[in-house]
TrEMBL record:
Keywords noted in UniProt: FAD, Flavoprotein
PANTHER family documented for this protein: OXIDOREDUCTASE (PTHR42659:SF1), XANTHINE DEHYDROGENASE SUBUNIT C-RELATED (PTHR42659)
Keyword Flavoprotein: yes
Domain FAD-binding PCMH-type: 1-219
Gene3D superfamilies with a match to the protein in the record: 3.30.465.10, CO dehydrogenase flavoprotein, C-terminal domain (3.30.390.50), Uridine Diphospho-n-acetylenolpyruvylglucosamine Reductase, domain 2 (3.30.43.10)
MF (Gene Ontology): FAD binding; oxidoreductase activity
Name the UniProt record assigns to this protein: FAD-binding molybdopterin dehydrogenase
Provenance organism: Phyllobacterium phragmitis
Amino acid sequence: MLPFTIQKVTSVEAAIAAATSGGRYIAGGTTLVDLMREEVEHPERLVDINSLSMSDIRVEGSDLIIGALARMSEVAAHPEVRRLQPVIAESLIEGASPQLRNMASMGGNLLQRCRCPYFRMLDTACNKRDPGSGCAAIDGLNAGHAILGTSNDCVATHPSDVAVALVALDATMRVRGPDGERSFPVEDLFRLPGDTPHLEHTLLPGELVLDIRVPGGPDSRRARYLKVRDRASYEFALVSAAAALDVEDGVIRSARIAVGGVGTKPWRLRACEEALVGKPADRPTFEAAAQLATEGARPLSHNHYKVELLPRTIVRALEMSGEVA
């Protein structure tokens, strides 16, 4: 690990000033510290934001507000989260070990770097780590890589589980930077790799995530998260799905679906959602809609299985959502 300094701040204004002048925000540090230890990332100055008042979890009307510094374990265990948005609690529990959940913040989870092993291997080509060097994963071992949203420069999947749930739920996030405050959908935080895969999010220099707002709805309490992986715990998703259905008299009134493990960012499936509305909430309907999920897929040499596994995962997630009373 290369030398660095730490600056502890006690106000949002001080944090933004420090980050604007070259500092990097750090909260739980569960990703950043690992990458620094491996010398993939080497910031000279870290801005410790843990003293900021951004860890509250509260309800406003039907909306759930989650502070960016709230720890994953706190959010997953919070009674209002479990009552209003159980899919968030499920995705957080599935997303990491208890030790990591106790440390990792919600804002940091959304901004974690990609899961591609070549990103962490300094002796291989990676356009995220070293722009213009190439992508070793495309012709390498790529069973865990993306089939949606890929480019000739990057095929890495986004690692966050809770981001998938938040995208499905139309959550928004509030950020503040040198030019003031703004809010936007969580879905818009993430960039497609294109020919600039090292640019992973849309935050402006110095912007700090303040909180996340999750709107309530008739389908929120029915939403479920399903994660398919190589082992039972502490593993990234091969395919995951967050599904929410609003069903009345056996007919689907609205649907929301997002998937992980298959896209270069959390992937919203609006075509599948549209195909469900007005149809009976049964397996044939789910199967027909789920087939639309793989449109535009570009499988690699070792991940063709995801083309078949993705629709199956969506069908089961929809069934789970329909089973909730």
